[in-house]
């Protein structure tokens, strides 16, 4: 959780500040899309590079495979994220239509659902009946309450297009970094791979740190966790390429 100054905390919880804040629409956040795209982009491209180097392929092959996977996998991941968020929105819309239909057809049954939901929260007697009367007096509020309390659907839904765009951008930008050393053709493959590994490790660490700053978590630990995750994936790719080279007998192209 982010640390805030006590004075700022008290100021944000004054009646007028609370009223203004609650009148605003809930804000969606795309940091998770950026983190997911960045990590997966870096893992994907460096894993391809590691596998190619482990298999004994020259730098040009590693570069071609890396960029090909960068574009194809980035697009695929963006589409998947779009479809996932779109499906979530469509599911929420279908539930909203269903609840509106139920309220029109069996209002007493829907009122009883509201009553039992809030009874489980500890309300009873006149207070419970006042809550039921207040919520069911406004159909829109009634429907939104049913969506939240019965189905667990919240108001904040991510825009599928924005989510897909953020994922693709993070995937391509971060995923390009481990490929940059292979553009320096004058360097031997071993140095190119060493620099690529260092850049990939830096990207993994910085992504973890960025995530920690947004969510107020310990920066060093978050960076190291992300670094270990990406390093493990790259290590497995390199090992797989090396083993297959030995089994198949490929000594490079």
UniProtKB/TrEMBL annotation:
Primary location class: membrane
Biological process annotations from GO: intracellular manganese ion homeostasis
TM spans (from-to): 161-187, 193-214, 226-244
GO cellular component annotations of the record: endomembrane system
GO molecular function term, any single one: manganese ion transmembrane transporter activity
One protein family per Pfam: VIT1
Keywords attached to this entry: Membrane, Transmembrane, Transmembrane helix
Keyword Membrane among record annotations: yes
Location relative to the cell: Endomembrane system
UniProt topology in membrane: Multi-pass membrane protein
Protein name: Integral membrane protein
